[in-house]
Hints:
This protein has about 170 residues and is mostly beta strands.
Amino acid sequence: xxxxxxxxxxxxxxxxxxxxxxxxxxxxxxxxxxxxxxxxxxxxxxxxxxxxxxxxxxxxxxxxxxxxxxxxxxxxxxxxxxxxxxxxxxxxxxxxxxxxxxxxxxxxxxxxxxxxxxxxxxxxxxxxxxxxxxxxxxxxxxxxxxxxxxxxxxxxxxxxxxxxxxxxxxxx
Length: 172
């Protein structure tokens, strides 16, 4: 996956060995990186387990002009409910992501036996079926607060009290 970051991505993705699908999703406002927490959720339509492994590579970029950064692999093995599976992941080194690219990287040979029959009773096995990409922290709220401490005086004379201002930011 690392090789895709610095190459002409569109050409590379459209010429994959298994003709895998891909999509670029834009976020406005961006998806934000909250340290030590998952930032994205990728949802796949599996319609129930057990089901053969399907994978999607998830990339992001902080600005539309930036190179893509590989973030994580999404798998179809973690159920949300009886019909969908999900993978949570982090933005890693990115502070935010305005675009997320999801590319199916499933190997078609995983779905068929040597005789050409499917390994599962359903002949719709074909790769990662993306349903949604959810920004888990899509709004970063910032506001100023004040506190008692060394800083600005409340008045020039006659008052020893001082305060300082600081900014607090957190996800919604």
